[in-house]
TrEMBL record, chain A:
Pfam family, one: GST_N_2
Keywords: Transferase
Natural source organism: Gluconacetobacter liquefaciens
Start and end residues of each GST C-terminal domain: 87-208
Gene3D superfamilies hit by this protein: 1.20.1050.10, Glutaredoxin (3.40.30.10)
Protein name as catalogued: Glutathione S-transferase
A GO term, aspect molecular function: transferase activity
PANTHER family found in the cross-reference section: GLUTATHIONE S-TRANSFERASE GSTA, GLUTATHIONE S-TRANSFERASE-RELATED
UniProtKB/TrEMBL annotation, chain B:
Keywords: 2Fe-2S, Iron, Iron-sulfur, Metal-binding, Oxidoreductase
SUPFAM superfamilies, per the entry: ISP domain (SSF50022)
Organism from which the protein derives: Gluconacetobacter liquefaciens
Coiled coil start-end: none
Source organism superkingdom: Bacteria
GO molecular function per UniProt: 2 iron, 2 sulfur cluster binding; iron ion binding; oxidoreductase activity
Domain Rieske: 10-113
Pfam families per UniProt: Rieske
Keyword Iron-sulfur set for record: yes
The protein's name in its UniProt record: Rieske (2Fe-2S) protein
Length: 208, 227
């Protein structure tokens, strides 16, 4: 495989999705730092030439630029059945949660960005409610999974669905949501943290 | 039946949600707490304030039978006393550096804390509760005043926990933690023997209770597209 290149912003949770999966897979990528805050480099002509919609992260794999966290996860998981199940039902479930991560869960991503970078407060807003509602959907799912003896989002082991959801859940304290309100998420966060190759990012405690 | 006795005992969380060697946060009537379980299985509840610089102990982690603060790594043993300061590993910390422990009880699948030293003992011999083992179902955070939720699920006046006999099949233990004025945690457990399908029904029922209570409180959380 030709060298992997990751266009990366340290504080961006979508980039962390990619870094986390690369680390679980034991893969190295050459890192190109994109200065989003305060640089606004995602809108530069140079970066738009790589990622036309200005989306981060971008992974260059076999010469092909793959834009966006869920696409990067899929591209890296290709051919790895343990991370991307081959059975129709579990594959469909993973697809469902990847779409959720790129769709409704964006409310939480936006809440975090607004809190960290635009100084938005904790007050109730349509966006905060939608963000809380998205976290609850994952919480409710994992609470039910647990009643069946399941620990992971899909199936018997971690998949790209877990990686797509993890950063947003683990970082919700950045916008004022406490993990104490989400016991099922808390248990699952611990399980992800315990996987070999786990890495943190700023905002996710490193117990050393 | 009175499980909260002469008052002052609060159901913080399901026992199953505090694994050995882990720490979690909880809030009891606006009072933030650090809840942790040592390697021997004993649960501890402290005010969520590190004696060093006041950071939150609930974000810490358990090391060698002590709760380690995330910020500068000070460690506090089961009695709350500081046992280790990483910057001064040879120093034996003075006994005055101490986290503030609350009284704790663990029964019927729940971890309880006493709000004051005057809280009586938690009556652990309630026949309705002691007769069967309780299977944890789940806990739900509800953004509505606890009194409304208590009334809606049929807790007796003034009680924070009771065996319910309405709305659901089989015996259900419901316990309610007032988090603050407008929020609570509802803990649900089912009496053994409990089929898995029944546990799912009960978890769904909890979601219904949450949705209805929040609607009454004018708090609606709907996921969907936002800008
Ligand atoms: S604040 Fe806890 S060790 Fe410093």
């Amino acid at each position: 495989m030709s060298a992997l290149v990751l266009y990366d912003d340290e504080l961006d949770e979508d980039c962390y999705r990619a870094r986390l999966f690369l680390s679980f897979l034991g893969l190295q990528a050459r890192r190109v730092v994109v200065d989003v805050v305060p640089g606004g480099e995602q809108d530069s002509a140079a970066f738009r030439a790589v990622s036309p919609a200005g989306v981060l992260p971008v992974l260059r794999i076999e010469g092909q630029a793959v834009c966006g966290a869920e696409a990067v996860l899929l591209a890296l998981a290709h051919g790895r059945a343990e991370w991307l199940p081959e059975g129709a039902v579990d594959f469909a479930r993973v697809a469902h949660w990847l779409q959720f991560a790129g769709g409704p869960l964006r409310a939480a991503v936006l809440m975090r960005r607004a809190s960290l970078f635009a100084g938005a407060g904790d007050e109730q807003s349509a966006r905060r409610r939608a963000a809380v509602a998205a976290l609850r959907i994952v919480e409710d799912h994992l609470a039910h999974r647990r009643l069946d003896g399941g620990l992971w989002v899909v199936g018997e082991g971690p998949t790209v669905a877990d990686i797509a959801l993890f950063p947003t859940v683990a970082l919700c304290r950045d916008w004022g949501e406490e993990h104490s309100a989400y016991p099922a998420l808390r248990r699952w966060v611990r399980a992800v943290r315990a996987l070999p190759g786990f890495v943190t990012m700023p905002g996710i405690p490193d117990y050393g | 039946m009175s499980v909260t006795g002469d008052g002052g005992w609060y159901p913080l969380m399901l026992s199953a949600d505090l694994e050995p060697g882990t720490a979690a946060g909880s809030t009891m009537l606006g009072r933030d707490l650090a809840v942790w379980r040592d390697g021997l299985g004993q649960a501890h509840v402290w005010d969520d304030r590190c004696p060093h610089r006041g950071m939150r102990l609930s974000l810490g982690f358990v090391r060698e039978g002590a709760l380690a603060c995330l910020y500068h790594g000070w460690r506090f043993g089961a009695d709350g006393r500081c046992v280790h300061i990483p910057a001064h590993p040879d120093l034996s910390p003075p006994g005055t550096i101490r986290a503030a422990p609350l009284r704790v009880a663990e029964c019927w699948g729940l971890i309880w804390a006493a709000a004051t030293d005057e809280s009586g003992t938690l009556p652990e011999d309630d026949p309705a509760l002691a007769a069967v083992p309780w299977v944890p179902v789940r806990s739900l955070r509800i953004e509505a005043p606890w009194q409304g939720v208590a009334g809606a699920i049929g807790l007796p006046e003034g009680e924070l926990a009771a065996v319910l006999d309405r709305d659901v099949d089989g015996r259900v233990l419901a316990a309610l933690l007032p988090v603050g004025e407008g929020a609570c945690m509802l803990h649900l457990l089912a009496a053994e023997p409990a089929e898995v399908a029944r546990l799912h029904d009960l978890a769904d029922w909890g979601q219904d209770v949450r949705a209805r209570a929040e609607e009454r409180a004018g708090q609606v959380f709907l996921s969907g597209a936002v800008a």
